[in-house]
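Why do we care about 3D structure at all? Because function follows from shape, and shape follows, mostly, from sequence. That is the central idea of this module. The next example makes it concrete: a single protein chain, its amino acid sequence, and then its structure expressed as tokens.
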Amino acid sequence: MRVVSHQPSAFSRFFASLRACAVAPLLASLPLCFLASSLSAQSVLTGTVRADSTGRPLPGVEVIIVGSQYRTVTDGSGRYWLPLLPAGRRLALFRSVGFRPVQEWVVLGSADTVWANAMLVSQTVRLDSIVVTASPDQPRGLGLEAFEERRRLGFGRFIDSATLRRNEHVPLVQMLGRLQGIEFARVPGEKGQIAAKSARRHDGPCFMQVILDGVVLYRSVAPAGVQINALSGINPPTDLQMFSVASLAAVEVYRGAAETPIEFGGSGAGCGTVVLWTRRQ
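And the structure:
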């Protein structure tokens, strides 16, 4: 069997090459045609954003095509440029801090440039009122209710009700004598009366003022060298022997003006202060 192979003639080969040259440019131009067709359907949105009150251009205003990823901001002259937008009816949003946002409908045609200028009105941002719900620190009390608070401050000497109940048979002068910085002396001109005096003063008797339930019984206001007795016209120091430990709820002793709280201080606290609180019935 003979196998016959047909070889194309030179004439056939010439016409085939002509057809290839004619078709090749058409095929090569197809992507460009599709690209041109796609670009021809894109639109551009541009314009200027100004302040409504002054007309000055507003830089940094955000311009958004609502419902899409297209967005930009205005430049220093208030201009913006949004290219490659699909044709159709779109909602443009203009917003900036300190101004009310503005929305504007724009109709974009194929291969169209649409101008949309916006005027923003300034808006004062009103913040919610601050409501304070915490309670302020309560001022320190002046009476027996502030006994523990004054003791926590660390000034003075304190005898609480528990200690007093265990020592109801002990004279008050003896209990106070256990505290440092306090001494006792007989009141000049007063028979048998014993008053507390400061152990820090050595220039003569310096009797401590005495306060009972917030009422000053004795204040050391006598000048140096003045004789204190019933005939001198000056109240003598308080005799501490007249107080029963069983009748007291608490005792505070401050050895000088520096230790004495302001509610018990004043000109009479220089020699110290003894504060007595009686038991409530």
